Amino acid sequence: MEYTMFIFLGLALVALFFMSSRGRKQQAKQQEFRNTLNPGDEVMTSSGQLGTVHSVVGETVLIETTPGVVTRWVKAAIQAVPPQFATAESVPAQDDVIDPDDPDRRDRI
């Protein structure tokens, strides 16, 4: 009976150690990503702002959000490379596009 408390305590400490080491690995990966930022890289900030790295000066990153608009951010706010969104060129053309003004449409009431 006395040993079960020590077993549960030991298991809790082991689980805490593994969760802590995973967090440290993720932090190190994020720090490495931030340290390798170069002009021209597409990035997303922690608030969701998308843009292209204009320049990196110390702990400050200048991000161009639209042509001619440059904003200043701290490196810690740079979260990740944004996911690629679908563009008109990446979506295959569809031959079965429905024209709402087509008189031959059968779904009109």
UniProtKB/TrEMBL annotation:
Indicate the family of this protein.
Answer: Belongs to the YajC family.
- Entry keywords, A to Z: Cell membrane, Membrane, Protein transport, Translocation, Transmembrane, Transmembrane helix, Transport
Write down the membrane topology. Single-pass membrane protein
Q: Which Pfam families match?
A: YajC (PF02699)
Q: Which PANTHER family match?
A: SEC TRANSLOCON ACCESSORY COMPLEX SUBUNIT YAJC
Indicate yes or no for the key word Cytoplasm. no
What protein am I looking at? Answer: Preprotein translocase subunit YajC
Q: Where in the cell is it found?
A: Cell membrane
Q: Does the keyword Repeat apply?
A: no
Question: From which domain of life does this come?
Answer: Bacteria
One GO biological process term is: protein transport
